[in-house]
Structures are given as structure tokens and as C-alpha cells.
């Protein structure tokens, strides 16, 4: 989580400075695309603050009203971030783009735009490199998209996607500004703003999908379920693992429920000892499993329930 905060703080500082610069440049040069980029940077700055808030609140200890802790706060705020990217970032950029196409205005003092865009690409690119390095450390040998889908820490790929969208948007604005300047095509300013907005809408849709899955209670992988099942059934007291239910409470906490059929000859003391033994074994093998609930159940009862 410390490495995740590093990428968030770097993105926060970069976006805050870039947003101020873009608004000043957009006002001087009368560039709608630059103003749209300024809005984009403001939204990204707010997003980083919300992610830090989510990380902080997710660390709150469990209490009477939240016995399993506040880990899902991170998933909630990550989902809010994806909505902000869509509504404020993408929506405002597209609106401004349409407005500037309908009422095109000539570009003034474009050199300022080039300087700001160059510096912004440098700063955003640096932030993207940091986020990419942090994500590569987390994913290991796993393929990029697979790592994003499997990741239980949305703050890692949120910053990565934000920075990638920012860099892509800057290059779009740079190309359209250059064409506008060379061929005197003021409507390209609006086109650039719309394209930036569409990039943000696409990114927000991907982020919302992943954050929603975690917020709704995403569980452990099929491979991990098989390994836990095999681990449990190695215990001499177990006949069969009937079912495994799980959910990520946070990127570092898993709630696990095991429905197990134990051997009929066990007395109460032996059954309780077996439950304690299995719980301890699972926790030793899987460090992220914070809570293990074990429910004894006969195979016949489980079969009747399923029917």
C-alpha cells in the first residue's frame, strides 16, 4: 500500500501544478481544448484526494456497526472516482468541444500552448512512469489485462489509467493545436476537446466496471478455492468440503466461509478441535484470510438445501 501511495502522491502533485498552468494558458490563448485539459487535470487532482481518503478510511478498525472493518471504503471511493472521470472529466470536455465547434474562435498566442503542453507531457509522463513501475511490481509475471482484472486494489490501476488517459489527451490536444495553428482550422480546438472527453469516458467505463465488481463482493479465484478445498480435506476429521464462500473486504483482507461435512463419529470436543485446526491451517497458508467462518453440515442436509 505504501508503493501505491507513492504513485498517488506523484500524480496529485503533477495534476495540481498542471491544472493551474493549463487554465492560465487556456485563458490567455482562448483555447477551449486547453481549458478542457485543465478541467481534466482538476478532476484527476480530486480523484487522487478521494483515493487517499478511501485508503485512510479503509484502515479504520472494526467496531460494533462494522464488525468486519471498513475495508470496502476503498472500493466505494474508487467507484466514485470512476463516476467523476465520466461526469466531470468526460462530460465537460465533450460539452466544451461541441460548443467550440459551433462557435469556433481563432487561436491566440499558440506558443504558450506548446510550452504548457510540452511541460504537461513531461510531468504527466513522469507520473505515468512511476505508476507503471508500481503496477509492474504488483503484477509480477501476470499479463497486463489479467493483472487489472485480478487486482483487488483499485488504487493501483486507477492511477495508471488516469495517467495514461492524461498523456493520451495531451498528445491529442498537441496534434490538433498544431494543425489548427498551421492551417487555421479553429474547429479543431473543439474536436480535440471531444476526443479527450471520449478517452475519459472510455477509461471511466473500464474503471467503473472493475470497481463495481469489487464493491459488490468479488471473491477469491477458482484456483485458490481448489487449493483451499484440497487443504481442508487433508484434515483427518473432514469428509468433504461442501462449499466455499468468500469476499474481499479490502485488498488485504478476505472473509472466508467454509461449509464442511465432518466425519459422523466425531464428538463435540473433537469437532471443535477440528474447526480450530482448519481455521489456523488456512490462515497460515493464506495470509490475506482475516476471517474464517466454518459451518459443519451433513452431505444429505446440503443436498436437500440445494434442491
Tell me what the structure shows.
The chain is mostly helical and 307 residues long. It folds into 2 domains: 2-215, Cation efflux protein transmembrane domain (Alpha-lytic protease prodomain-like, Up-down Bundle); 222-306, Alpha-Beta Plaits (2-Layer Sandwich). 71% of the residues lie in helices and 10% in strands. It is built from 10 helices and 3 strands, in the order ααααααααββαβα. The protein has helices spanning 2-29, 32-58, 73-102, 110-139, 144-150, 154-183, 187-215, 222-233, 268-285, 299-306; strands spanning 238-250, 253-262, 289-296. The protein has a 3-stranded mixed sheet with strand order 1-2-3. Helix 1 runs antiparallel to helix 4 (110-139), helix 1 runs parallel beside helix 6 and helix 6 packs antiparallel against helix 7. The chain is elongated, with a radius of gyration of 25 Å. The mean pLDDT is 85. Keywords: Membrane, Transmembrane, Transmembrane helix, Transport. The chain crosses the membrane at residues 7-28, 74-95, 115-136, 157-181, 187-208. Its main location: membrane. InterPro entries: Cation_efflux, Cation_efflux_CTD_sf, Cation_efflux_TM, Cation_efflux_TMD_sf, SLC30A9. It comes from Mucilaginibacter pallidiroseus.
